[in-house]
Design a protein that fits this description.
The chain has a single domain (4-144, 159-187, 235-247), classed as 3-Layer(aba) Sandwich (Rossmann fold), CATH 3.40.50.150. The chain is 40% helix and 24% strand. Helix 1 crosses helix 8 (191-200) and helix 2 runs parallel beside helix 3 (55-63). The chain is built from 9 helices and 9 strands. It is α/β, with parallel strands linked by helices.
Length: 248
């Protein structure tokens, strides 16, 4: 996972404000749960990666049936949010690319987190070993158009993959059951409000160093030079795939 220490620090700071600001993430969680239940409702063992404040956890509880629920997040504070929703959840703290997940899992699901993985191929190869025959991998992430405005002005970005690139990583071992991709633009009163939104959703961990007042001022001035309004482009991707049964 990219800059895991920085990501953990920033998300810990933003947890209390995250739900109010995570507009796109809430929409994605609902869509991901809605599409997953169309494929299958009963999953004896579920593992959620990057549970955060439990936005997706709530959707899982209301849409899916399970016997055991495991939740992971980089920050241990997430445990408190998860346990308010599913009191008997098993919480696994730590970097999702390094934790030891439960064996014989029926569903691995994650919302708005996979973009943080430095090498998605390695992560997929790791987690497929823990899925049961015909186990489901369902996740949302963000594509190449995500935060275009931020990239244009500051150069800050993640190694976003296109939907086709993600599918090519999955296809040798998974049958693709559902995909969706779209763009959504959020409008703000000012570039400063845009930066506050990013801070409150933990995304300011993209920068290696904390921005100074001068950095923020320069960003806001440059933004208004390049764009007529303060806005931010999101590029969500949803993918649901089934592990091919001949791999087990």
């Amino acid at each position: 996972m990219q800059n895991s220490k920085s990501i953990k620090k920033q998300f810990e700071k933003s947890l209390d404000k995250y739900d109010k600001n995570a507009i796109i993430q809430k929409d994605l969680a609902q869509k991901l749960a809605n599409e997953t239940v169309k494929i299958r409702k009963d999953f004896p063992v579920i593992l959620e990666l990057g549970a955060g404040t439990g936005i997706l956890t709530k959707q899982i509880k209301s849409h899916l049936a399970f016997q055991k629920f495991y939740a992971n997040d980089l920050t241990e504070k997430s445990k408190n949010y998860v346990h308010k929703i599913i009191p008997d959840a098993n919480f696994i703290p730590g970097n999702a690319s390094r934790i030891k997940p439960p064996a014989n899992t029926d569903l691995i699901i994650s919302n708005a987190m996979f973009q943080w993985f430095y090498n998605l191929s390695d992560v997929i190869n790791y987690y497929k070993k823990f899925l049961n025959n015909d186990g489901i991998l369902a996740f949302s992430t963000f594509g190449k158009e995500n935060f275009n405005e931020l990239k244009e002005i500051s150069g800050l970005t993640l190694n976003y993959l296109s939907k086709d690139e993600i599918i090519r990583i999955l296809e040798p071992d998974f049958e693709i059951l559902y995909t969706d991709e779209y763009t959504q633009i959020l409008d703000f009163e000012s570039p400063l409000a845009l930066l506050t939104h990013m801070k409150n959703t933990g995304v300011n961990s993209l920068a290696a160093n904390i921005w100074t007042i001068k950095d923020i001022k320069n960003f806001c001035e440059e933004f208004l030079k390049q764009y007529d309004s303060a806005h931010l482009t999101y590029n969500p991707i949803i993918i649901i795939a089934k592990l091919k049964s001949n791999l087990k």
